Amino acid sequence: MADIESTGPGLGHREISFTRTDQGRYAARNARGGELAFGSGDDTDFTPVELLLVAIAGCSAVDVDLITGKRADPTRFEVTATGTKVRDEQGNRLQDITISFTVEFPQGEAGDRAREMLPRAIEMSHDRLCTVSRTVQIGTPVTMRDTSPGVG
Prior knowledge:
Elements: E1 16-22, E2 25-30, E3 35-39, H1 48-69, E4 76-88, E5 91-104, H2 109-129, H3 131-138
Antiparallel strand pairs: 1-2, 2-3, 4-5
């Protein structure tokens, strides 16, 4: 059985927290001490919807890079995530999420092996490996609760 951990790439509990830094602006923190500013879209900070696209694309990019990188380091590795925000009877959500990979490898045998593996690596990330996209695709329930003092 895999080691269970609360930080890093292994299995186990995950937790982030964030605080309001100003109107419509927030600072998220992870257990390893990383910090990320985000907001409502009134400035250059990422919005939560953009961060969802980053999370999906980033998760798959890590998978694909680790798999193909065992064969050859890419000379170009770019990923684009797109989606359309809609509002309908189900509420606000993204649809038509697409992750596009543009990856190039050096000439030679190692690069050929990496190029050959690229479509399979993308498929493996989509179908099994990427926790973020798998969570979205499967449709994991989200619980929201008020833990403010004096509530409950």
